[in-house]
Amino acid sequence: MDTPPDVKTDLRPWRSQIEALLVGIAMSPIVRRALLDAFEEHGLLAYTKPEPEIAVDELGRLRKTVVNKVLEDFDENVRSRVVSVLEELHAIA
User: Fold this and answer.
1) SS3 state at 92
2) Is residue 46 in a domain?
3) Would you tell me the crossing angle of helices 29-41 and 76-88 to the nearest 10 degrees?
4) Which among 10, 76, 81, 92 has the fewest CB atoms less than 10 Å away?
C-alpha cells in the first residue's frame, strides 16, 4: 500500500487574522492596508508567495526578526504598536 505524499501545513496566519489584530490599533484604513500588503509581499500570510520557512515557528507564531523587516518602512509609532499587539496576543516569537 502506497503512503500518501507528505502534505505540508502552512502555519502562517491568514490575511484576515492579521487584519483582525490590527483593527484594535488606531490607524487609518490606508495604513492598515499598506501593512497587510507588506505582510503579504514578505510572505508572512498563509498560502502566499514567497514561502519562507523561517517566517513562523513550529506553533505558527511570526518570527520577530521577520516582522521587524516587514515594518522597517513604517514609522516608529506604527512599528511599535503592531509589535506590541502581536506580542500581547502571543502571535510573535
Assistant:
1) strand
2) yes
3) 70
4) 76
Split into its structural domains, the chain has a count of 1
**Cell digits for 79?**
512599528
Cell numbers representing residue 56 in the block: 513562523
Residue 32 lies in a domain: yes
Work out whether the CA dihedral 14, 15, 18, 24 comes out positive or negative.
negative
Q: Containing domain of residue 63, as a range?
A: 15-88
Per-position pLDDT tens, the chain of length 93: 566 555 567 788 889 988 988 887 878 899 999 999 999 998 888 888 876 667 888 888 889 998 999 999 999 999 999 999 889 888 888
Asked if the structure places residue 81 within a domain, the reply is yes
